[in-house]
Amino acid sequence: MKDRFVHALRAAAAVVALVLCAFAQSAEPRVTAKLSTGVAKLGEQLTLQVIAENVSDATLVPPPAIEGLRVGAFAGPFRESSTTFSGGRVVQYLALTWNAAIRPEKTGEFTIPPLSIKIGNRAAQTAALSLTVVADLQGEDLGFIQAIPSSKRVIDGQPFSVEVRFGWDARRTRYNYAILSLPWWRQLEGTVENALAPSGRPPSDVYAFIDSERFEGIEEIEPTTLRGITFRTFRMVKSFTPTRAGRLELSTSSLEFGRVVARDDFFAFRQSLERAEQFFARGEPLSIEVVPLPESGRPFDFGGAVGTFSVKAGAEPRDVTVGDSIKFKVEWTGAGNLEFFEAPDPEHQEAFKDFRVYGKTETKSVDRRVVVYDLAPLESTLQQIPPLETPVFDPEAMRYVRLATPPITIHVRPLKDAKTLEADGSAERSTRDLVDIDARALAAERLPRVPGEVLLGALVLAPALALGVRARVRRRGDPNAPAEKRRRKARRALERELAAAADARGRFEAFCEFLGARTRESREAWIGRRFERGAQGGAPGLATPLAPELERELERELASLAHAAGSGGARETDRGRLLALADRLIAGGL
Amino acid sequence: MGRWLASLVCLFACFAPSARGADASVAANLAASFGAHANANAGAQASENASAPSDARASFDAGVAAYRAGDFGRARAHWLAALDAGGDQVDRKALCFALGNAAARSQDLGAAVGWYSAAQRLAPRDADVLANLEFARREAGFEPFDKGDLTATLQRVVDAWTVAEASWIALGAIVLFFAVLLYEALRGGAGWRRLAFLCGAGALLAIVPWVRALERERADALLVIEKSGAALRSEPRDGATTIETLAAGSGVRRLDELPGWVRVAGVDNASGWVRAESVFALSR
Predict the structure, then answer these.
(1) Is A73 exposed, middle or buried (0-12, 13-18, 19+ CB in 10 A)?
(2) For labelling alongside A95, which of A12, B29, B72, B130 has CA 20 to 30 A away?
(3) What ipTM was predicted for this assembly?
(4) What domains are there in chain A, each with its CATH number?
């Protein structure tokens, strides 16, 4: 009953919804754009919001670049819909929203041009927006940010680093946050980033962010004095390797700093930070020139190594036989693109013609490059691993140089019966081929077949025969019944008990137990049993009558055993005679 | 399942002496005609190049001598003569194996695969035969004989026995089943009863290889040895519609034949005609 009611209610709701949708008024599409503020401080982050109302599907066309404003990627669209009753009518509202972060990089008046939104096969445009960006004069006095390159002119492939220093007036001890806007920090076009070891411990009393993301890689250094003011100073470093010649532009950096207070929000699962004081400082843009590697004097085997390197080498083992593997370890250190150059290949160097190179393993880091070559000497006459040369462009000397490892003395023992690895390897290589014919092809003695008739007959007759036997046996009772098991085990039990019996009583009881088990009776039934002969003779209770002489022998033996047991058991009874009688009784049908 | 039932029915049918005799004579006639055709070229070569000894042993030894001398065509002729001579002087499996080697050395890889397959039917577990069969199939570009998946493994276990071996395995399993049944009848007990059921299932399973071996022996099996596969045509002429293409190395069953053409049934029992030189008779 309840289920039927619920179903009816659902159906009614669905009908109402359909009716509402049918009568709902959908207004004309409308697109708007708005900024979180019309006047902003230099470095402050704004939000540009684009809204398309009364449309269910639309695409925002990315706006063109605006000089002086850094517009981030648009997030969205976020969908919002509602249905309301207004003036007796149903009004349905549907809106799509896109958001983007904007950060001014210079002061002045800016115009954000109309943004285009594609709705179906037509386009709608927002109105142009105006933005005024002013410098935060107080912030410029209270804080600073600087980007300092290791060199303003580098060679293509030569690593360089950029250190960012920032801070605020050391007297403003309550300031506790910094948000750095560094457009080039995540990715600098025309370079690859070098991994750097983490710097010192970040200050525990300062929250640092780079473009809204928490950043832990800053360290506090000695205070800096600028413009006569002492600043609490922090630094962070990034290292790059240029991948092409040209000019690298590191656009304006800005710093937002001040004081935040933590607020505990009951409904939020984490502490939120709220700005209490906010200032902005601006850094100067930076340009680094990357000059191409000179063509003149470039070695044909140049692998792109640029820097000031030193090299050392080692080998293990150094006492080997021809063809044995030697681990030839070469290590380059110094300042340069250690991670990126191509390690020299000994196989391409004439000095290594008497070695076979099986392979190499490499480990790379910003300050070290280690390559372990797997070499095998081919000649026993070899006495050293020759110098391995690495062509390097030295940016300090501005010329190509050849770094060489020192020669390493080795002892190469000859192979047995061969001088060189080639000689030893000239033996025929094994490969798969046909197995040869059997030239004897002696006909093996043939296994005779079991005729099918026999097999099928056996398959049918064997179960039938077994079932017949089973039925016959079951007529006498279940052979697995305890009494039957006791009967089958009686002879073995008698032998065991006779051996264990200490006196005549024990033997008498064992024999009675045997008789009881064989006749499916209790042992006591045979103690003092009277043998009354009927018309056909035979012991009473037996399924099969015993032969008269066997019956008399049993009667005598029982009487003898009973007497011996009653007289204290001094007289020894012949165990073998009892077992022989038991066998005769079993054979006689007991 | 249907094939199994059909096999069992055929099995029972074949025990009738008259039926068996008739079937055997038909099979012998077919085998003789097809064998003569398949080996026509080789036979002609044998009569031309070798005065083939009538004694199978002597023919085989002459073939070995020719093979060792690198005259694979002559060796093949001698061995075919030995195969035709029959008798118990030479192991037929060894003869098929040797013929496979002669074909492989002559770069007739399709025929080599056929001969090794024939040898494998005679000695299913012979490691050398299996090695050469796989080698020849690989060289010929056929699928491997042992695909290595579960189905192929089970099939190999079931087919790893000759008819005689499989019949003794089946008989042993039935005797064991009978012994366990008898013991259970005499002694009783749930354990023995369970064992009897297990042995019964085992006996039925043990019959499977025997049935399979009989089926394999009785089936007039052919192997497609055309490297690009054999066109199965609706009629025995080249212009007839191609029903399907039989994959190289696949097995088919012969139903009938005409000069130059053999009617076969494919894997899905679709019947059609293929060129006689595209297939190889495996009953040797």
Answers:
(1) exposed
(2) A12
(3) 0.70
(4) 20-135 (2.60.40.10), 138-291 (2.60.40), 305-423 (2.60.40), 482-587 (no CATH)
